[in-house]
Specification:
Radius of gyration: 26 Å
Largest sheet: 12 strands, mixed
Strand content: 35-45%
Structural class: mainly beta
Number of strands: 15
Helix content: 10-25%
Number of domains: 2
Oligomer: single chain
Order of helices and strands: HEEEEEEEEEEEEEEEH
């Protein structure tokens, strides 16, 4: 009877050891890209949004899991709305640039650590990323109206890293079948403080000469053909409009940093806002198993 009890408690200890999750010690955020790139087990992974978000100018992903291989998609509404522009030129090789605006509310002051921009190169692979550079100017007004540059220039490469967003840019006719335009995130280091006001970002991408572009996909919202009031520079500044609908377009970008004078937010333990599941290390599991066996021995001795 005593042997059966020992056997039962040993089996129970082993079952607990198997059932308890082991801490995922090989998953970490790359310290060289603190605003967006996630690495998994030491290998670069797909881009993930920042946990230090100050401003998001708008979405480009419209459909989750409908793309090739279960990827997400940014669907140009060619059939439903008559739109025609997959992306706008913002390539260093052609001298093209994109500009779009954001507003810092009255009374606020932003410490801007980084800004993430998005682009694709037609027929380029999703991995490795082919974007190789970004230069940026921040203006205190629209660049076509006599405003001044308050940060940046047109020559310094501020891109810290680039990775695929897990999103393909497609038309309604090619959804689920085209992997020709993998949208990449270019995570850029900024490091400046701005007070309340309206600012314009003016940026340009560099990429692989083996593929066309880089091209900047506009903000994409299902049912909307008008998404902003961005500008494109091709020798002079002009409003960005879709070539099918002639409607004005905006561009996605993400500003990361902190509100000056406010405590820096501490990322939640789980990294995604959820309370993490308690875990034990291998050593902890072994100790727990020994503890249960010890309890079994004590119980049996007392009964005898």
């Amino acid at each position: 009877m005593r042997m059966k009890a020992v056997y039962f408690l040993v089996v129970l200890a082993m079952a607990v050891a198997v059932a308890l999750p082991v801490s995922a010690g090989d998953s970490f955020e790359d310290s060289t890209a603190p605003w967006g790139i996630v690495t998994e087990g030491g290998a670069p992974g797909t881009w993930q949004p920042s946990r230090a978000l100050l401003y998001d100018n708008g979405p480009f992903m419209t459909h989750s899991g409908t793309g090739v291989g279960g990827a997400d998609e940014s669907v140009l509404q060619t059939t439903s709305l008559g739109m025609n522009t997959l992306g706008m030129g913002a390539q260093l090789s052609a001298g093209n640039r994109i500009a779009d605006q954001f507003v810092i509310p009255a009374g606020d002051e932003w410490q801007i650590d980084g800004i993430t921009f998005f682009a694709y190169q037609s027929f380029a692979p999703s991995d490795p990323a082919t974007l190789s550079g970004v230069n940026l100017q921040i203006w205190d007004g629209s660049p076509d109206s006599g405003a001044s540059v308050v940060w940046g220039d047109t020559s310094t490469n501020i891109m810290a890293s680039a990775a695929w967003t897990n999103v393909y840019r497609v038309s309604e006719e090619s959804t689920g079948t085209s992997a020709d335009r993998a949208i990449q995130a270019a995570v850029c280091t900024v490091g400046t403080t701005l007070t309340a006001g309206t600012y314009w970002l003016d940026w340009q991408f560099d990429g692989s000469a083996s593929y066309s572009g880089p091209w900047a996909p506009p903000i994409t919202i299902i049912g909307n053909d008008t998404t902003g009031d961005a500008l494109q520079y091709t020798g002079s500044w002009a409003a960005v409009t879709d070539s099918g609908t002639a409607t004005p377009q905006g561009f996605p970008f993400i500003v990361d940093g902190t509100l000056v004078g406010q405590p820096t937010p501490t990322p939640p333990p789980g990294g995604d806002g959820a309370e993490p599941i308690p875990t034990l290390s291998v050593t902890g599991i072994a100790l727990l198993s020994l503890l249960l066996i010890g309890v079994a021995v004590v119980v049996i001795r007392r009964r005898s």
